[in-house]
């Protein structure tokens, strides 16, 4: 009997596996709301959750496969999260800009990424200056630079002009950058800065022969396409655009219920053969 393939599972975190209070989407009657586990605390306050069932499934997943948390968060933001299950040897932060090995950034990987960015897209300072010059203080709450790799704004979503995001996306695209709107955050990220490249590096190091992935945003699309199989929830940027591909499973669930379904699907996919 042929051995089961070694499986790498790379999953986005926010609005894929873990959810803020605003993103939980608890539309069922109160008495039917699933029990929740807090997995992130910030400044003494609970911030992110998953269902207890999802937490149990994630523990099983961590024991059955190489589970790699994969996020656009900075390293400091990621380290606030306490996921259930075995500690992951690898984690991908800053949209692939940092590859953590046992919690420490791999300097060789980071150097390779920054060298590529310098040669393939407009400098961060140019993009930051454009966003600061064109964004209206009426709806911008914060300007942030993440890990000296990309830029994001925290905005009042209800006041945000839709055309501004579209115009920014066109401007950024011509300079080798991608724009993504996720909740109250608008990200501008260099196109060569990808989760998929970091996932492939981890697969090379672990010898994984099967890769599974999950995500909800435009910044997850390359990750999902790079994996043998991918899952996306019924909410988020990709759902709003109706995005899919032959290897992608589109789920109907939204909010924290989608997170639970995704972990279950990933666990069921571990070791499964992929159709040619």
Provide structural commentary.
- With 276 residues, the chain is of the alpha/beta class.
- 33% of the residues lie in helices and 26% in strands.
- It has helices at 52-64, 75-78, 107-120, 124-134, 162-173, 195-206, 221-226, 237-240, 256-269; strands at 7-11, 19-20, 36-42, 45-51, 66-69, 90-93, 98-101, 104-105, 140-146, 150-155, 177-182, 185-190, 210-214, 229-232, 248-250.
- The strands form 4 sheets. It has a 5-stranded parallel beta sheet with strand order 5-1-13-14-15, with helices on both faces. Strands 9-10-12-11 form a 4-stranded antiparallel beta sheet.
- A hairpin with a 2-residue loop joins strand 11 (177-182) and strand 12 (185-190).
- The protein is globular.
- The model has no long low-confidence stretch (mean pLDDT 95).
| Beginning-to-end CA distance, first to last residue | 20 Å
Instruction: Please state the average pLDDT score.
Output: 95
Number of helices: 9
Helix proportion range? 25-40%
Q: What does the overall shape look like?
A: globular
Task: Annotate the secondary structure layout.
Layout: E1 7-11, E2 19-20, E3 36-42, E4 45-51, H1 52-64, E5 66-69, H2 75-78, E6 90-93, E7 98-101, E8 104-105, H3 107-120, H4 124-134, E9 140-146, E10 150-155, H5 162-173, E11 177-182, E12 185-190, H6 195-206, E13 210-214, H7 221-226, E14 229-232, H8 237-240, E15 248-250, H9 256-269
Parallel strand pairs: 1-5, 1-13, 13-14, 14-15
Antiparallel strand pairs: 2-4, 3-4, 6-7, 7-8, 9-10, 10-12, 11-12
């Amino acid at each position: 009997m042929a051995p089961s393939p070694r499986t790498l599972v790379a999953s986005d975190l926010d609005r894929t596996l873990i959810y803020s209070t605003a993103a939980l989407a608890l539309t069922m009657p109160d008495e039917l709301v699933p029990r929740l586990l807090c997995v992130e605390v910030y400044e003494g306050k609970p911030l992110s959750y998953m269902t207890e069932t999802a937490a149990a499934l994630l523990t099983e997943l961590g024991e059955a496969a190489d589970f790699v948390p994969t996020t656009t968060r900075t390293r400091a933001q990621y380290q606030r999260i306490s996921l259930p299950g075995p500690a992951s040897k690898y984690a991908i932060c800053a949209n692939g800009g940092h590859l953590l090995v046992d919690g420490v950034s791999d300097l060789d990987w980071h150097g390779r990424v920054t060298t590529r960015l310098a040669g393939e897209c407009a400098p961060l300072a140019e993009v930051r200056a454009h966003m600061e010059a064109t964004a209206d203080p009426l709806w911008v709450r914060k300007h942030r630079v993440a890990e000296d790799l990309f830029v994001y704004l925290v905005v009042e979503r209800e006041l945000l002009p839709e055309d501004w995001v579209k115009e920014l996306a066109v401007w950024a695209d011509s300079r080798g950058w991608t724009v993504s709107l996720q909740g109250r955050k608008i990200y501008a990220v260099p196109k060569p800065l990808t989760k998929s490249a970091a996932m492939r590096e981890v697969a090379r190091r672990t010898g994984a022969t099967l890769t599974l992935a999950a995500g909800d945003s435009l910044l997850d699309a390359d990750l999902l396409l790079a994996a043998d199989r991918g899952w996306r929830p019924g909410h988020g940027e990709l759902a709003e655009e109706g995005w899919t591909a032959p290897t992608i499973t589109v789920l109907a669930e939204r909010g924290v219920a989608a997170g639970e379904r995704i972990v279950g699907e990933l666990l069921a996919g571990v070791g499964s053969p992929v159709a040619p």
